[in-house]
Specification:
The complex is a heterodimer of chains A (257) and B (304). Chain A is an alpha/beta fold. Chain A contains seven helices and 13 strands. Chain A has a single domain, classed as Rossmann fold. Helix content of chain A is 29%, strand content 30%. In chain A, the strands form two sheets. Chain A has a nine-stranded mixed β-sheet with strand order 9-8-7-10-6-1-4-5-11, sandwiched between helices. A two-stranded antiparallel ribbon of chain A has the order 2-3. In chain A, helix 2 packs across helix 5. By secondary structure, chain B is an alpha/beta fold. Chain B has two domains: 160 residues, HUPs (Rossmann fold, 3-Layer(aba) Sandwich); 120 residues, Rossmann fold (3-Layer(aba) Sandwich). The chains are: A alpha/beta (257), B alpha/beta (304). The interface between A and B is large, with 80 and 89 residues. Strand 9 of chain A pairs antiparallel with strand 13 of chain B, so a sheet runs across the interface.
């Protein structure tokens, strides 16, 4: 079985974001980068599926500048077999349709049986690339899965709906699955596996060679949200913060006598 | 401008969030036409044209068939915009339609300005203004971002669509979430733990504060996913919705899915080391502090 996992490298969401010079996205300097959280579940599910089957190959693909190879190395250390880096220093200017088109251009000839993606990225959050990739490749997609099982050629997944409800869905392969948080417990790469990952193949392809499609959406600007104000911020010494909060709770709420 | 509004039905009942698409159509001053795979027995209160396909035949989750039905409606109506909710139904179906139409999609819209859409980025720390370049645009709306000024009224003029039960994706069953446990929706005080508690042992500090306040403790999704708290204590769009007199968010960044479950709280206190955390947007008081120092100090004062 051939398994594809699509991952994205994103900034730590606790970062203090500055805007880029054009005002179209965040400034990517001085940020701590990591693998998109949803994608860690995608990598883990791929590794678990291969462990269950006892054989198969896992390819991890990522789009972006050279720094995204760090996230790919983590996926390789978690158990992916080889990596395909679609190099694009301006990937933040591509829209979801283009990102999906570029990955599809690579994946079309590889005939993957199963593709896992995160259900969305933590920075853009469009939740489109996975479904669009499946559409480009003419295969089915099931989004937001929190359980996955593969028995006798059929794949059964649980989709997470609102309010705790789940939908149990069966789909034949090839298919793409977008992974929701909690699908599994992503493993930490062990030191020997991190060393082994350094020797795994990591091929670089150029975005310009893969992408023929134009963007369907464009970004006018990126800005900070309007502050609603009103909220009080307490900083400083803990004992003072406690006293101030106690006073506020007594005045503003009926819960403290 | 004409808008196709994609309503949602679940287990035979229209989902009330469907009216948010109507509020959006009002905001952009578009002629609304509704689409629903649902039931005659649970129609939206809407005085316009409604294309209805029978969910008993098509299935409530059957993306290929829902896509085919929607394309049929789009071909008849030639809309400029097709509006979904950013929900488990909308984010699954919207990109399929966008692809089929060759249209651009803008996801999780919270506002619109001069023909462009405003969407959140980076856990709501940024806003992006996005424009679709084609003649047709597909959008998904963030839950709760648009609401009708008045109660919806009227009955739709129903046009029945003939549905089939085709499709490779086979819906087998719905499965309810775990039952039992604590009903947080009735609690007057809820103290919730987020990822910021750092490790499972620290949940005890949150429980202790909840006890000192005479309330219940809850948890955000990452804490439940990590197995540190039971699912029945999860607050948010995939857990419980709470509306206490006091909500204390401990180390919760404030992802939209969490806010959806607690924003009706009367008074919100957030404790976080990140002064820019989006929870600050809904908090009446944001305490910038380390939980490990602040929570025991507050609990001690309350218990004194």
């Amino acid at each position: 079985m051939k398994i594809l996992v699509c991952i994205k490298q994103v900034p730590d969401m606790e970062s203090r974001f500055k805007l880029n010079a054009e005002g179209t996205w965040y400034n990517d300097q001085d940020l701590a980068w990591r693998m998109n959280e949803y994608d860690e579940y995608a990598v883990e599910q791929a590794v678990q599926l291969r462990e269950q089957l006892g054989d198969g190959e896992i390819v991890v693909v990522s789009v972006g500048p050279d720094r995204v190879k760090e996230a790919m190395k983590k996926a390789l250390a978690m158990g992916a077999d080889r990596g395909v880096h679609i190099k694009d220093d301006a990937s933040h200017e591509k829209d979801p349709f283009q990102i999906a088109a570029a990955i599809a251009a690579y994946a079309a000839d590889e005939k993957f049986d199963v593709t896992f993606t995160g259900m969305q990225s933590q920075d853009r959050g469009s939740a489109q690339v996975g479904v669009l990739l499946a559409a480009h490749l003419g295969m089915q997609a099931v989004t937001t899965i929190i359980e996955f099982s593969h028995e006798g050629g059929m794949t059964t997944v649980h989709r997470e709906l609102e309010g705790g409800l789940k939908a149990v869905v069966r789909v034949p392969l090839p298919a793409l699955f977008s992974c929701q948080l909690g699908l599994n417990t992503p493993r930490y790469p062990t030191l020997p596996n991190i060393m082994k990952a350094k020797k795994k193949e990591l091929l670089t392809l150029q975005m310009a060679d893969l992408l023929k499609a134009s963007a369907l959406t464009t970004t006018d600007e990126t800005r900070y949200p309007e502050k609603r104000g009103g909220g009080l911020v307490l900083e400083g010494d803990v004992a003072d913060q406690v006293s101030q909060l106690m006073t506020i709770l007594k005045e503003k709420t009926a819960v403290l006598k | 401008m004409k808008a196709i509004l994609v309503a949602e039905s679940r287990q035979g009942t229209l989902l009330p969030g469907s009216y948010e698409t109507l509020a959006f159509a009002e905001k952009i001053v578009a002629e609304p036409v509704m689409f629903l795979v649902g039931s005659q027995a649970s129609l939206p209160a809407f005085p316009g044209r409604l294309y209805l396909a029978d969910a008993d035949v098509a299935g409530e989750y059957n993306p290929e068939e829902h896509l085919r039905l929607l394309q049929e409606v789009v071909a008849k109506e030639a809309p400029q915009i097709i509006v979904f909710l950013h929900s488990s139904y909308g984010w699954d179906l919207a990109p399929r339609l966008a692809f089929a139409l060759g249209a651009g999609q803008v996801s999780e819209v919270v506002d619109c300005q001069e023909g462009a859409m405003v969407v959140p980025a980076c856990n709501s720390k940024l806003r992006r203004v996005v424009r679709s370049s084609g003649d047709v645009t597909v959008v998904t709306l963030q839950a709760g971002a648009f609401s009708l000024a008045n109660e919806p009224g009227g009955s739709p003029q129903v046009e029945l669509l003939e549905s089939r039960h085709d499709g490779q994706v086979e819906f087998l069953a719905y499965e309810a979430g775990e039952l039992g446990g604590v009903d947080l929706s009735k609690a007057e005080i809820v103290v919730s733990a987020g990822r910021g508690i750092g490790k499972p042992e620290n949940l005890a500090m949150v429980e202790a504060l909840a006890k000192a306040l005479g309330g219940e403790y809850g948890a955000s999704r990452p804490v439940v996913d990590a197995g540190w708290a039971e699912h029945t204590r999860q607050v948010g769009s995939t857990g419980q919705t709470v509306s206490p007199k006091l909500y204390v968010a401990c180390g919760i960044s404030g992802a939209i899915q969490h806010l959806a479950g607690m924003k009706k709280s009367e008074f919100v206190v957030a404790i976080n080391t990140d002064r820019d955390a989006p929870i600050g947007e809904v908090a009446d008081v944001l305490v910038v502090a380390d939980l490990k120092q602040f929570l025991p100090a507050l609990t001690a004062r309350l218990s004194a």
